[in-house]
Amino acid sequence: MKTFLPMPMPMPLVSDAGVAGAALQRRNLLKMGLASASTLAAGGLLSACGGGDGGGAAAAAPISSFALAVLPDTQFYSRYATSGESSQYERHYGSEPYYAQTKWVADNAAKLNIPFLIHLGDVVDQVGKPEQWKVADTAMQVLEVAKVPYSILAGNHDVLNDVDFDFSPSTGTDTQRVLANEPYLQWFSAKRAKRQTTFGERDSTGFHEYHVFTAQDQQFLVLSLSWRISDAGIAWARSVIAAHPKLPVILVNHQLLNIAPDAVSPLETNYGKMLWEKLIRDNDQIFMTLNGHHHGGAHLTKTNDFGNAVEEMVVDYQMAYQGGNGLMRLYEFDLTNNLIKVLSFSPWVPMKPADSLNAFDQAVLTEPNHSFNIAINFAQRFARFNPTFGVGKATVASSLVEQAKALVLKGFTEPTAVVQVPARDSDDYPKIASTVAHWRFFGGVDGAAVAPGTQIADVTGANPLKRDQLNTSVIVGAEVGDIVWSSDHHRLSAAPGSVGFLNTNKNTPRLSYFLTDAAAPINAQTFASGGYTVEAFIKIDKTWDKSKHAWMNIMTRDGKRGDLPGFNGGDPESPPLLFAISSLREVQWEVVPDTSGAREGEASWSGEIIADTWVHIAIVNDPTTHDTIMYVEGAPVLRNSGNVPGLATLSATSPWVVGGGSWDGDRADGFFGKIGEVRVVAEALPSTKWLTARRA
Question: N or C: which end of the chain has fewer CB within 10 A?
Fold first, then answer.
């Protein structure tokens, strides 16, 4: 995967429902768009922390409280800070999010009464890349130097054999690894863990550990279990709890709780249910669980065998803007008021240059699944195993969460989002003179079939599309009704409709699609000198199934890229251009550049795209650097490609295909869902000229 050099980032567009509404829309669209538009002035936060207006108001009574810092998956921070990925963060922003997180905790541990930090795993993205481990090593050393103890565990990206529980419950566990080969155990060994004053021990594999920390005169046990614990590991965990019969236990895993498709509600996993049955439900000391792995944030309260609550929480921001944008959590344990207060925030965002900020740069998240309180009567909850658990001394002036907010937001002004309204009519979009092709899929009766041979006009008049005849190449079983007209469309598209691609199944294979004529001028276009912009409005069908629809194509151009002179990359059977949806529902933009000499496919990737939701995708190639940036709903994605001039073509008669592609010369990988508009422009457009904007 290639990186890209800095280029100006257009301001994200939001709907006229208002900025706050747009934040939720972006989250649902991007899985983790996380562009909360709620703003809270630092002054208000300072007042909440006990600051007065000079009027002599009585100060709030001190409380007994402490806070735990939590680092969700840091994998992209480790990856994109490496020289192998062009030191992307440092080049763009002059700082790195992982280091910013641990430095903030080290700098504020004393003033915010933070006795401990918890890492949720996926320390790195690519287990076999030492440079990524070095980034993580450097960031965690900041805590060691500051003598802030922490626990850490291996996520699925941190082990050599990543086997999901749902795929194979009996293989891929801790006991089935060659321990001497595991990079995690080399970089974060038991010897290193012993540097922590809170460290207890590790299990025999070295993957699982426990710590005991003291806060407000009370002790807590943190039990951190790495990816895919075995029955032997669970037996060890149970023995640790049994050896500390009076301590409340925070159970930390990489995977336990998931998040439902609404990006808010909790969703139990089979692995989490296994842990519940084998470890949690009959261990009353476990009152709280934390995990990452699944993208977003959710909270579930379950009741154990003793009738007591167990608070399960998942948090993972890796699919947010910039691989998480430095977002992390603070859990305040307010023993005086019997509350656990949850704060999701980024210490990195306020460090970024002001001219680099956009509406996705939120220093504090305010949505209910990212900022919330849990009522818990600590003494009552722990009474069964620790009847002497106390409140401790009231040594804290005011809420630590509010103090943390004030520290993060001091001197920071949240960027303003551009409010964009829906189209007034079907012509309400910016007209671009350099448009090469603009296909708008509307005009038929809602639900009626788009007959084979039907022509879709190109706004320029030069490159119309037509639906191909049924069952050409290796296609089997395609019917007239497999493409239908629809009035459904993206909220910001001026085109009042779309076409739906139905009954697609790559295994049959069954698909239908549109393509340009062999003599269409666009077939010869390579865009090598002036840059380009490609836009599309798409909606993945709600019944999307990766076994049937993985790697489905939004748009391609025909031919086998292996036939291009100098091609020496992977998948030579693929077309030279792939605008597709991966097996993980990521948007893939992969092209072979129009250059001489050795060349291969160069890709940009989005995060997971939610099904049954319209998204606007823009691919912008800079005319000078030829760096390519993908934007999904206005947000630039993290994984982009650099120095990619043009779009190679096999010949001037190789057509462009919308809704389908090819493999090894045979038609394949049809789209499943709806496509509204597709536009190809021979220049790099700012967001103010995208199809989501309005005419002047």
Answer: C
